[in-house]
Amino acid sequence: MDHLDEEALTRAGARERDALPAAQRAHLDSCAPCRSRVEGNARLAAALRRAEPRPAVPSFDALVAPRLGAAPDPVPVPTVRFGRALRLTLAVTLRQARLVPRLLWLVTLGGFAALAVAVLLVPQSGEVASAYLGPVSVALVTLGAVAVCDPRRDPRQESMRAMLVPPVAVWLARLTFVLGALVLTATAVSVLAAALPGSGHAAGSLIGSWLGPALLGVGLTTFGAVWRSPAVGLAFGAVSWTMSLVATRDDLVGTTVGSVVAAVWTHNGVALTLAALTLAAAARLAARSAERPIG
Amino acid sequence: MRVTATDVGYRYGRTRALTGVTLDTGGGVFGLLGPNGAGKSTLLRLLAGTLRPRSGRLVVGGHDLARASARRGIRRLVGYLPERPELYPHLTVREFLDYTALLNGVVDARQRSELAGNAMERLALTLEARTGIAALSTGTRQRVAIAHALLGEPPLLVLDEPTAGMDPMHRHRVRTLLAEIGRTATVVLSTHDLDDVRLLCDRVAVLRGGTAIFVGSPGGLATTAPHGADLEDGYTAVVSATTPPAPGQP
For the ABC transporter domain, which residue ranges apply (chain B) (predicted)? Predict the structure, then answer.
């Protein structure tokens, strides 16, 4: 083999001998003139390294400090006018139909449809309505709150935080949409049950059999889900639904306990106030958690 | 859009994540390098307005992010790709980008469709438009997340490891796209891939232990190597030469 070329000699002298092709390394082992030139190059490189000061990492603080004072005008932030904000709110709210689990709609609308069919077909529709409308409606509306808090579709995810519509607004839109749809459906079934001949119930009293406990269940579920986790929210919802059942059934726990529970878990001022407070607390926590550090 | 940080610090509870970071991104593409846990993602979260700086001064596009109103404002101006983007798995790519455009304030359905179509084209996602996100590979999801970040052409793009998990062909495509965007907007990205810095970045900072230990050009970083001008050697020299503060200490 010929002697090594200049590039190979330079690389070998600059501590890159191992990067040379095997044939060149083998030649170097057997060729004294080439080895001598490599050693000369290595000595030269070492001398240059000693003579050349090592580049210092520049002090960027010192470099930029004089310029930091002269801040440019702020880049204008996009604003949303009232009309567009309304349209945007409506569009975001309606879009939540696609963002919640499809199973929610199947279960809740199926459940209400089954209830409506039972009310229509059973001769004693009044008894069906008074026995089942409350528990079923409370359960289905509370289930809606659980679906709103599904972590896989959470609008507070980090990638959704840098948007024009803040995550908490999306969360509230979803809660409003889902609850609105379910409460309207439950109301429609209640009105239908009351309108049937021989029902013996006014629409108002049938709606009152579930509205307060359902809203309290929603408040407790969302609060638990946002405060701790969706599982905690689900547990709160289950407890609330059980309490609403106990409140209407003295035979389950006795009159004393039943009346105490009924003071909260029936359609009354206490239930509605607690529902409003727990929903407000959940919304506040949702707003704070969208600002919470991740990781 | 210019980003200037002066002595910026941040803590997660008692754990220090950033200490006295001072840098100026200028325009173009700015890269953040550093070992795992160096504070890159935290700095990017601060830039995106999703965290509040605990100390120092962070000014993005003239907005001082110490103020909550400024952080709210900057979130409208920035396209943000977090380290672990969580996309809605039950939506298709087109549905997700359409929804993103809606959350960015685009009410008109046709305009949203155009924006989503354009973003998919730029990220080579047109064939996956009707595919559910749950069915996509990691690299393809990453491209969807980038498309999500650059919808509406924000003046500042904050990208946490944008080319992670991508095959070489798509990595090249994303780099070309980011270089193109960097000509008109500011792109701040973190990466472990020195080729990203070599091929993309106008300026680069190296973080270690929550502190910026080098800020300058990629060429400048390369020349910090004892011998030669290799970026990898320069990065290694800078990271190993500096004794960082003990990580995670309050």
Answer: 3-234
Q: Is the pLDDT of residue B212 over 90?
A: yes
The answer to whether A42 contacts chain B (CB < 8 Å) is no
Domain count of chain A? Answer: 2
The domain containing residue B210 runs over which residues?
1-77+156-247
Q: Is B220 exposed, middle or buried (0-12, 13-18, 19+ CB in 10 A)?
A: middle
Contact B80 A161 (CB under 8 A): yes
Q: Do both B55 and B169 map to the same domain?
A: yes
Identify whether the C-beta of residue B149 lies closer than 8 Å to the C-beta of residue B79: yes
Give the domain range for residue A279. 82-289
Q: What digits encode the pLDDT tens for the residues A139-191?
A: 999 999 989 888 888 888 888 888 899 899 999 999 999 999 999 999 999 99
Q: Least CA distance to B2: which residue of chain A?
A: A72
Q: How far is A239 from chain B (nearest CA, A)?
A: 30
Q: Is B75 within 8 Å of A161 when comparing Cβ atoms?
A: yes
A130 shares its domain with A270? yes
Q: Are residues B113 and B207 in the same domain?
A: no
Q: How many domains does chain B have?
A: 2
CA distances to B177, B188, B218 from B171, rounded to whole Å, are 10, 17, 19
d(CA B51, CA B49): 6
Which residue is it, tokens 């079934």?
A189
Query: Between chains, do A159 and B82 touch, taking CB under 8 Å as contact?
Result: yes
Of A14, A71, A80, the CB nearest to B62: A71
